[in-house]
Every structure is written in structure tokens, then in C-alpha cells.
Amino acid sequence: MADIGRLSGKTVVSLACLSGTREFAEAFRTAGAKHYIGPDDYPDFRDALAFVTILFFLLASEVNIAEAAARASAFHGETSQFTLLA
């Protein structure tokens, strides 16, 4: 990842199943990502859509990334599988 990615200071949100691991987060951190968010389960399209919509709404409203991720994750039992890892 570090050889091909240039993610300096970026936030990465993965919607891929089971991608909310330290290994995924570390790979993106190595490429320069500041924050990494991913699910620790198998989100369906509704879960993923709800999470990213709420997350981006909160970020656009100038809520910090940690609080925005926590609030989006707390929205519903199925969105709780998304975690800020980096």
C-alpha cells in the first residue's frame, strides 16, 4: 500500500466486509492516512449507507472525526459495526 498510495492526511472509510481490523488500518496508515474507519462484520447496503451518510453530515457540520464516527456508529445496532481505528 505504501508503495502505491499517497493518502497523506486523508480519512479512509472502508465499507468492505470485515475490513475494520488493525491490519487494514495499519496498511492505510503506512500509506499516510490520518484516520481509518471500517466494519468488523458484514454490513449490508442499508447499514453502510446509513453510516456514511450520517458520518459525512456530521463532518460537514464541523463535528470532529472521533465524535462523528462514534455518533454515526451509535445510530443503529447495525451501524455499530463501524469503528474509527486510526
Widest sheet, order of strands? 1-2-3
Could you report the average pLDDT, rounded to the nearest whole number? 94
Quaternary status of these chains?
Answer: single chain
Principal-axis shape: globular
Question: How does the major sheet shape up?
Answer: 3 strands, mixed
Radius of gyration: 12 Å
Total helices: the number is 3
Helix and strand string, N-terminal first?
A: EHEHHE
| Tally of discrete structural domains | 1
Tally of strands: 3
Strand content: 5-15%
Segments where pLDDT lies below 50 for 5+ residues? none
State the separation between the terminal residues, measured CA to CA: 16 Å
Helical/strand content category: alpha+beta
Helix content: 40-55%
Description:
The protein is of the alpha+beta class and 86 residues long. The chain has one domain. The chain has three helices and three strands; from the N terminus they run βαβααβ. Strands 1-2-3 form a three-stranded mixed sheet, sandwiched between helices. Helix 2 runs antiparallel to helix 3. The chain is globular and about 35 Å long. The model has no long low-confidence stretch (mean pLDDT 94).
